[in-house]
Amino acid sequence: MSANTNAFTGGFSDPVFQSQSIFRMLMDGMARPGSIHTVEHDAGQPDPLGPAAGAIALTLCDHDTPVWLSAGFSKSAVGEWIGFHSGAALTREKAEARFAFVEAGATLSSFGLFSLGTQEYPDRSTTLVIEVAELGRGQSFTLSGPGILQSKAVEITGLPEAFLRLWADNRPLFPRGVDVVLTAGRSFLCLPRTTKIAA
Amino acid sequence: MSADLATYNFAYLDEQTKRMIRRAILKAISIPGYQVPFASREMPMPYGWGTGGVQVTASIIGPEDVLKVIDQGADDTTNAVSIRAFFQKVADVAVTTHTKDATIIQTRHRIPEAKLTEGQVLVYQVPIPEPLRFLEPRETETRKMHALEEYGLMHVKLYEDIAINGRISKTYAYPVKVDGRYVMDPSPTPKFDNPKMHMSDALQLFGAGREKRIYAVPPHTDVVSLDFEDYPFEIQTFEQDCALCGAHGVYLDEVVLDDKGGRMFVCSDTDHCEDRREHGHVGAMLAPNQEAAE
Amino acid sequence: MYVAVKGGEAAISNAHRLLADRRRGDRSLPSVTIDQIAEQLGLAVDRVMAEASLYDRSLAALAVRQSRGDLIEAIFLLRAYRTTLPRFGNSVPLDTADMLVERRVSATYKDLPGGQLLGPTFDYTHRLLDPSLLSDEAVEEPARRDASDEEIMRVSDILAHEGLIEADGELPQDHQASDLTREPMEFPMARDLRLQALARGDEGFLLALGYSTQRGYGRNHPFVGEIRIGEVEVEMEVPELGFAVSLGQIRVTECQMVNQFKGSSKAPPQFTRGYGLVFGQSERKAMSMSLVDRALRAEELGEDITAPAQDEEFVISHSDNVQATGFVEHLKLPHYVDFQAELAMVRKMRADIEAARNGETEMKDAAE
């Protein structure tokens, strides 16, 4: 993939059907945590945003969903690209963000500053899309919870160091909490707040 | 005013509406049994006739899907016919009556008899999504009860029922607890179908259009009907077998035959019944003679 | 039988064909045109526009024709169409002080700047069926005069000069007008959202609720400060231009109800407001709306909530006639699966009672 820095190129060539297909993968991914899905279409997203993360942004974001970007993305054309193609506004306030995109290797300090929803409205929480090096290879983790028959093993390379600790803090907040999509290039997997992860 | 009146997007809803509903569906899946508020749209069919289910189906359906629509378990009830025709018209989607061939099944009041499989989505049409509504009409109150996991009142109500009627007399829309947290209304399916929700291989989505709520049960998730140790939950049983296919242990419709008390019982799930008959099963009514049917 | 096996499609299509036939009626009569409906059944068209929240006379007239004159059905048709329309933005607030007034009456002053203008009203007509309307007799042109330059002051502004009436509702600077057709509803509501719900609420429902407040169920001592009907400009800010451009005129009915308020520890006695604004000409709706708006402000004004009209969740949850008619009428859809479950339960419970009774009799027999 060539280095793309242009915010005004790309986008879905067939938005109705491509976003439907990406959404179905996301829905299946949330319903079956840990299942790995592969994005076929290239939305022409600027570096360093990956194709899966780019497609997810175009599928779910619009002017009703403020978007937060990690430092690496903020410095690139990613914000402009998401804004131009989806209409979403960027926010610096984690708590306002409906979606947060985090580049590979970024340091995660806490999920608590993102919106966790309220006890009455736990749905009003941020969904984090975090890029990792690779899915389907690497360190093995065992997932369990709704959507998983007994348990499921997944391999992840490059999961941020603090992730397991932050996730362990997120789980007991239920029904509040963030939901996570891990992306790696064209592939992604979903981790709804109900999923337990054991190393 | 003229020709452009009749234009609509694929699956009727505009893309922004679909995105809004899709986001609600994802949150619903990640908080099993919790009712996510959504900005339900006015659909070209009346509220109470499946607008919630239709909006959910319209937001998830794609050209690869095969859609089945049932009402009361039957593919040929008028409202099922009407909703199926709607999606054929606005999404040009393949339709089927065979449960096993469908990728999306939209339903009102029944869960198919055949075990649903991985990859299938069951979309329920829901009139009143709030299981606590019959105890407390106010949304402001019931929302608090869910927030605090304060379901004592529900148990009191069910126990009162036992005190008065000697049993829990709720026969449909029987409340369940999902993944040990949220009490949920399974929609007005007979309680006969409740066990099918438990640890299903399929994803279950619920849409309530007029009440503007979407909720979900992911696959392989605990769905437990509320009960008491001394009054355990039990489902309906039928003494008869299906008069057409001889099926036992399925939900039956009572069909009145004459004005002298004559009646027969047939499968409510029409596809299940047809499939059995195709495989050579014969019920009393269709048997060449009484002996053959036993 | 409406569950004719495999017959559903044909049955539906035949039903629709019969409906079209009944809609057209006797073919020897000319069919009614959209223009005729818009011109001669204008108040029906107004109601459809108001409760569908879509200002388009021709489409509303089409809906009236298509629905055979069933106005709730027409409202439903127009709303289902409205949903599919793209949004371009919000208009700037209407300035009803700048209205081209056709009717304006105040019940609180004998005369006032701008005068009392009766306009096209049924008031003071004697309700006698008019045989001249059986034939198509010529109708006189209306009497006209040049519009005066005199400003038609709003009665609320007159009272405000003296500080006798509360300020017009205040919203925070950054408040964005919300839209209940785009966002899920949540209680309690901001007043703007509540007014939107009331403006598209069912006329009959609001009329009954408004009436109930007059009969003591949440009494709020109303005076009609003023009702005005006429055309106002709709404008929209265009960021690229830096000023508002006109999108055209619409006819609206506005009612400002002036209500007694005893005052509280925080506020001296002054009049309070109830507000009604609807598309087209509909005094009944605008007046009912302003009564209900005032009643629903009970909590804000520290009044006891004792009556249905003061109960926001009750009123707003049930004011929408398209929702209400859908849910009431859905009862005619098949429910036989659930009914079967109930049948079995009732039979079982009766059998239990019967068995218990027989048991008692046997015991009694044995005892004897």
Textual characterization of the structure:
The complex is a heterotrimer of chains A (199), B (294) and C (368). Chain A contains five helices and nine strands. With 199 residues, chain A is of the alpha/beta class. In chain A, the strands form two sheets. A six-stranded mixed sheet of chain A has the order 1-8-7-4-3-2. In chain A, strands 6-5-9 form a three-stranded antiparallel sheet, with helices on one face. In chain A, a hairpin with a 7-residue loop joins β5 (134-144) and β6. In chain A, α1 (15-31) packs across α2. The longest helix of chain A has 17 residues, at 15-31. Chain B is an alpha/beta fold. Helices cover 27% and strands 17% of the residues of chain B. Chain B has helices at residues 15-30, 51-60, 78-91, 139-147, 152-165, 194-197, 270-278, 290-293, and strands at residues 36-37, 66-71, 94-95, 104-108, 121-125, 176-178, 182-184, 203-208, 213-217, 223-225, 252-256, 263-267. Chain B has a seven-stranded mixed sheet with strand order 1-9-8-5-4-2-3. In chain B, a hairpin with a 6-residue loop joins β11 (252-256) and β12 (263-267). In chain B, α1 packs across α2 (51-60). The longest helix of chain B is centred in the first third of the chain and has 16 residues, at 15-30. Chain B is globular, with a radius of gyration of 20 Å. Chain C folds into two domains: 10-82, no CATH class; 91-122 and 148-169 and 180-319, no CATH class. Chain C contains twelve helices and four strands, in the order αααααβαααβββαααα. Chain C has helices at 8-24, 34-40, 42-52, 57-66, 71-83, 155-161, 191-199, 203-214, 283-296, 312-318, 321-329, 336-367; strands at 100-105, 222-238, 243-259, 272-279. Chain C has a four-stranded antiparallel sheet with strand order 1-2-3-4. In chain C, 29% of the residues are buried. At the B-C interface, α3 and β11 of B face α1, α4, α5, α11 and α12 of C.
